[in-house]
Amino acid sequence: MSRRTITGFSNPTVKFVRSLRDKKHRKREQRFLAEGLRLLTDARAGGRLPEILLMAQGREAHPLLSDLESAVSAAGGDVIELPVDILAKVTGKDNPQAVAGVFAEWDTGLAQIDRQSAPLWLVAQAMRDPGNLGTMLRTADAVGAGGLILIDDCVDPFSVEAVRASMGAIFTQRLAQARWDEFLPWLRTGAGQLVAASLRDAVPYRGAPYAGPCFVMVGNESRGLPEDYELACDLRVTMPMKGRADSLNAAVAGAVLAYEVLASLES
Amino acid sequence: MSRRTITGFSNPTVKFVRSLRDKKHRKREQRFLAEGLRLLTDARAGGRLPEILLMAQGREAHPLLSDLESAVSAAGGDVIELPVDILAKVTGKDNPQAVAGVFAEWDTGLAQIDRQSAPLWLVAQAMRDPGNLGTMLRTADAVGAGGLILIDDCVDPFSVEAVRASMGAIFTQRLAQARWDEFLPWLRTGAGQLVAASLRDAVPYRGAPYAGPCFVMVGNESRGLPEDYELACDLRVTMPMKGRADSLNAAVAGAVLAYEVLASLES
């Protein structure tokens, strides 16, 4: 088991890892960064090992971390020890987790989605906030969804913030990215009920006739879904809005709807 | 109607407003910043006018903004026009809204909460993320809750990020801040069912015996609720967790639970 120590901010590996905080570099390198033993353990359970494992000096020993280090070494990965202040600089957090890993991105084509493998899928259209996107992945995990399909121009799901907010679900959920004009024809090649919250000709979200595989779609944080996307849905539902506002946070709306679908499909 | 124009970054009012992005300055000045015509209109509807109204040069005219300007002037407030790049600097956003306002903070003692005025209240304990806190306020508005009670060491609800995420609900929802050992005795002076998601001796969240006024409590993003807080609840409920993770984003959990309580109380 080989392990090397880095002590300088100007080390090329440190610079490389740090550069992955920028989308431009992530896209070029097809690599991304995830922090924390919990996430890295979820990644391993999901069949993904980091190519580079970064461990802070002075960290507490942990059997899961020892296992992970062995696995990364055995797979020919790079295991690095470094001072905690350099790790903080790399991950951009003042109080960094004691471990971080660099992972290869994977194919996020629609072919990744086996619609019959789960009763429920989440769909986000033009979602711009990485926290919301990560939260959708986390919710997808919780409701037993198969994964998350990103439509049109969404924020990068491999951004540090999205990965962090996913709490590991980025590694365990299926993830696809597609344009609407790819997604809709793909959806119509098989069974699949497309559902969205809407005010157009909609039925109450409680007790609506949900059917699996059910695709729960939420729209952009500011603009919501385009009208033609709503009209293409098989089911439009309304959720109570009792206050002054006419909408919920997008990740919240998706979650409330997804839990309702889950309860309906299981009853 | 008086209006003055500011053209320099070093103007004392610009510096003052900008300083309100720091909690320390907000606390000292008891003032905070809100952006956007929508939020400022909600504020006015909630009975709150900005003491300082900032308007970008070159903005589009809007009757609501004209009304607002008149109202601020009439109330003796300060109406300022300034270049959009200075407004961007003040609010810390690259694409700032065309208007922003400085508001006086208000009393957030528990005396603000008239529990009988709404069937449902949200409670957040040690919530650290301003986006989550703002989202809770927005959800509270949507479910027709009376407001949000912040327990223990929460992030500042008057932070720019929390105000932004609340989408105006900061102005229309009741807001209280209290220590747990103030809140619990206060709660017990009257009717009020304290509910939390929990794994301890809990019943399924669907069909649980909710009763208004119902106080839906969520815990800290990392640690959840302390055990004794959970044990003090009148009702502990479980939500399905079908994946690898054992929890949801705190604002999401609060929203799913709140919508369930709403449906239960209305049925």
TrEMBL record, chains A, B:
Known InterPro entries for this protein? Answer: Alpha/beta_knot_MTases, MRM3-like_sub_bind, Ribosomal_eL30-like_sf, rRNA_Methyltransferase, SpoU_MeTrfase, SpoU_subst-bd, tRNA_m1G_MTases_N
**KW Transferase (keyword) present:** yes
Entry superkingdom? Bacteria
Tell me, what is an example of a GO biological process annotation in this record?
methylation
> Annotated Gene Ontology MF terms?
methyltransferase activity
Asked if the keyword Plastid belongs to this entry, the reply reads no
The record lists the organism as Novosphingobium capsulatum
**One Pfam family, short name:** SpoU_methylase
Domain RNA 2-O ribose methyltransferase substrate binding, by residue range, is 33-109
UniProt keyword list: Methyltransferase, Transferase
UniProt-recorded name of the protein: TrmH family RNA methyltransferase
Write out the similarity annotation: Belongs to the class IV-like SAM-binding methyltransferase superfamily. RNA methyltransferase TrmH family.
